[in-house]
Write a structure and sequence with these properties.
alpha/beta, 4-stranded mixed sheet, 332 residues, Rossmann fold, 7-stranded parallel sheet, 10 helices, UDP-galactose 4-epimerase, domain 1
């Protein structure tokens, strides 16, 4: 049975990843400092509570296991916070990741799937965004992720460390079996915020800007189901383990289709309305730095790894998220 280390496996995406790997027959160890993750989401695998800043603990962990691969989700990811607290982001997202890479090389664990982000691209020069788009991040969060991507390229050349960086667009949805879902504090993602306005956890949802050059004036974003994100990670890991992918590779991960904020709200209203709930919507001014449209071109990963989103329609994505929200607040 192959051993996999999932760093940040107590978080939203990481916990779904751990379940998928465990169900596929992998022996999974979760390493998480629980700063944003939850013990309650670690329903599969073995949890080791620790921080990537603690190199002796990392070395002990690697010495006790025969990991073949590492999947790394352990980053801070709030754009606004990265602007106000850049030191926190560079220390955790870059310096601590460097610790992980060095211990991997030390123990000859030479396969890493790295959770990167579309924020490395900055403001889009064109859309859909492909992997050849210039990477000019406009905040410390995106900059920290880009620094690690460059580290991975150098570590591939110097030490033979194989890696796949997956540049996410908007992760969303929940485990269809309702064991896992989104539990951010604070929550910043649109779909759960809209559904919290339906369940009563929020009094309303705000639309920031109604005058963008889109079909209804609201921003367009690319939403990808968390299960589809995880399947891409597993495919990337398998490709490295088989020798099909070597060096430092990178792929976009998106649905390939964009939806406006208003479309998300309209679909959500239809779904929650069937259960007798409503959503109060407030209009607000544009937020600084919000581009009109962010949509991924994911053709590269489709062609090379034969990845295809299983849950590409927005109705299914929101339905899964709503079932999870109902479970969280006791509406089931």
């Amino acid at each position: 049975m192959k051993e996999v280390l999932v760093v940040g496996g107590a978080g939203y995406i990481g916990s779904h990843m751990v379940k998928m790997l465990s169900k596929s027959g992998f022996d999974v160890t979760v390493f998480d400092n629980l700063s944003t993750g939850y013990k309650s989401l670690v329903k599969y695998g073995k949890l080791v509570v620790g921080d990537l800043a603690d190199r002796p603990l990392l070395e002990k962990l690697f010495s006790e296991h025969d990991f073949q691969s590492v999947i790394d989700f352990a980053a801070f990811s709030l754009v606004g916070e990265s602007v106000s607290e850049p030191a926190k982001y560079y220390r955790n997202n870059v310096a601590n990741t460097l610790n992980l890479l060095d211990v991997m090389v030390q123990y000859k664990v030479m396969h890493l799937v790295f959770s990167s982000t579309a924020a490395t691209y900055g403001n889009p020069a064109y859309t859909p965004i492909d992997e050849q788009h210039q990477q000019v991040p406009i905040n410390p969060y995106g900059a920290s992720k880009l620094m690690v991507e460059r580290l991975l390229q150098d570590y591939a050349k110097a030490y033979g460390l194989n890696s796949v960086a997956l540049r996410y667009f908007n992760a969303c949805g929940a485990d269809p079996e309702l064991e896992l879902g989104e539990m951010h504090d604070p929550e910043t993602h649109l779909i759960p915020l809209v559904l919290q306005a339906a369940s009563g956890r929020l009094s309303s949802i705000r639309i920031f800007g109604q005058d963008y050059p889109t079909q209804d004036g609201t921003c367009i974003r690319d939403y990808i189901h968390v299960q589809d994100l995880c399947s891409a990670h597993q495919l990337a890991m398998a490709a490295m383990l088989s020798g099909a992918l070597t060096g430092a590779e990178y792929f976009n991960l998106g649905n390939g289709a964009g939806f406006t904020v208003q479309q998300i709200i309209n679909v959500s209203k239809d779904i929650v309305g069937k259960d007798g709930y409503t959503i109060n919507v407030q209009q607000a001014d544009r937020r600084e730095g919000d581009p009109a449209e962010l949509v991924a071109n994911s053709r590269k990963i489709e062609e090379i790894l034969h990845w295809k989103p299983l849950y590409s329609d927005i109705e299914t994505i929101i339905q899964h998220a709503w079932e999870w929200e109902k479970r969280l607040v006791g509406l089931h």
